[in-house]
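Work Package 3 (structural annotation) set out to generate three-dimensional models for the target panel prioritized at the project kickoff. During this period the team completed the workflow that converts sequence records into discrete structure tokens, so that structures can be stored uniformly alongside our sequence database. As a representative example, we reproduce one entry of 297 residues exactly as it appears in the project archive.
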Amino acid sequence: MAGATSLHINRQAAHYEGNPATSEAAWIKWAIVGVSLAFFALFLLVPLAAVFSEALKKGWAVFFESLVDPDALAAVKLTVIAAAIAVPLNLVFGVSAAWAIARFEFRGKQLLTTLIDLPFSVSPVIAGLIYVLMFGAQGYFGPWLREHDLKIIFAVPGIVLATVFVTFPFVARELIPLMQAQGKEEEEAAIVLGASGWQTFWHVTLPNIKWGLIYGVVLCNARAMGEFGAVSVVSGHIRGETNTMPLHIEILYNEYQFAAAFAVASLLALLALVTLVIKTFVEWQVANSSKNVKGET
């Protein structure tokens, strides 16, 4: 009886080894692939093509004129400034939080993990309103800020705060599972051999997490430059002063300046494409690194 059961199991194993993962008909597989490609084309490629088509609809002269407009340049500058401040801050926090969560046990660890995920569950508009309630003229800190001639809401600091909040989880959320999966044996070995904490971080931890770190930074930067909801609430929509690129696009579109709106939008679309290329490259590097590690073991 046992021999017959073993023979049956071996035949089943041989059957699945020589056959695809599924036994569905070929037309079903091609139908699924076709639906996926059609969805991709309809909801991603067509809108992307429409952005560049509308941007160039009135010719290259209008396109470049829209991009060198003073208000457009101010919006680009403010977007870059907000991202240039928010991304390094989240980089430092993300690495610190990931190291603490992945390497140590302490009270409040689960709470910290939950708080990192908070921007994913809170609407960006709500986040902007929270900052208005805290730092606005009638907010909790409004009188004190007014006395000291400090302005946060409807100014650059408010935009930076809102950008930091919405991009808060990206770096940490990429690094935490990566560092937990890697374990801490290599770092402990380095410390036993006499390395300091700083040397261990630079020569052991950082090389092991570099691709995950780059991946998180790329996503963080893309979100920082494309954020609309939270920034819209705290900016005040002041032309040439507190409008980021997404807000400037909205104003142009509402004023029926469609060519100019799509011209600026094409810059964000190019950013998305560049981000996609970098993301694909990083994923490829991570996959190769994993294969090399498995090959060595």
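The chain is about 80% helix and 0% strand.
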